[in-house]
Amino acid sequence: MCAQDAGEITILVLLDFSHAFDTINRPLFLSKLNYYGFISDAVKWFASYLESIKQLVEMFIKMAPMSVQTCSVDRGVPQGAILGPIIFALYCADIVNNIKHCKYHIYADDVQIYMSFRKTEASIAIQNLNDDLNHIAEWSDSYALS
């Protein structure tokens, strides 16, 4: 509202990483915890938690169970897990280093970047917005997020 009251234009870009929780690179996540200064016991706990994730696959043919198989899952975190959004937030915390010109709000796999500007500054504002988006795209590629 303040930007509008000041006669400014606001551009908002909404980003949503698809399959975000499924694509977390666990070794990279654990190295980030070390980088952020987590104590080794906490890093070991997260490693143990992530290593213990299993997936159950059950096949039915005409309502009769045919086979059941348990598989280890080596990427991501389980959908609906209480720790999922926290792990993803820690995994993606450095995305903000790629946003130089815009303001932002981030929650889990949703990112909002926005900026307000006067009509006479539109050209430079759009260049700055595109610069931030390009940096986010490069960062996303390096983390296998899309």
From TrEMBL:
Residues 1-146 form the Reverse transcriptase domain. It holds the Pfam family RVT_1. GO terms for biological process: DNA biosynthetic process. InterPro entries: DNA/RNA_pol_sf, RT_dom. PROSITE patterns: RT_POL. It comes from the Eukaryota. Coiled coil: none annotated. This is Reverse transcriptase domain-containing protein. The lineage of its organism: Eukaryota, Metazoa, Ecdysozoa, Arthropoda, Hexapoda.
